[in-house]
Amino acid sequence: MKEVKARITTNNMASQKVLEQNGFEHIETSDKEFEMNGQMLKFITYKWTNKSLF
């Protein structure tokens, strides 16, 4: 089994849609906020798992 993780920021709606449309599942939203370009953001983590037996 193979796994890919992706971490994006909460303001990146386009990437969230792309990940979800490609089979990634939301596994975590960070509790910690940070400032980037004047915005307070959090990280969102997604995971994709290849469940193939090959």
Report on this structure.
The protein has 54 residues and is an alpha+beta fold. It has one domain (2-50). Helices cover 17% and strands 50% of the residues. The chain is built from one helix and five strands, in the order βαββββ. The strands form two sheets. The protein has a three-stranded antiparallel beta sheet with strand order 1-5-2, with helices on one face. Strands 3-4 form a two-stranded antiparallel ribbon. A hairpin with a 2-residue loop joins strand 3 (34-36) and strand 4. It is elongated. The N and C termini lie close together (8 Å). 4% of the residues are buried.
Adjacency order of strands in the biggest sheet: 1-5-2
Please, what is the oligomeric state? Answer: single chain
> Which series of helices and strands comes N to C?
EHEEEE
Low-confidence stretches: none
Helicity, as a percent range = 10-25%
Name a few traits of the molecule.
three-stranded antiparallel β-sheet; single chain; 54 residues; alpha+beta
Task: Give the topology, please.
Blueprint: E1 2-9, H1 13-21, E2 25-29, E3 34-36, E4 39-41, E5 43-50
Antiparallel strand pairs: 1-5, 2-5, 3-4
Q: What is this structure, in a nutshell?
A:
By secondary structure, the protein is an alpha+beta fold. The protein contains one helix and five strands, in the order E-H-E-E-E-E. It has one helix at 13-21, and strands at 2-9, 25-29, 34-36, 39-41, 43-50.
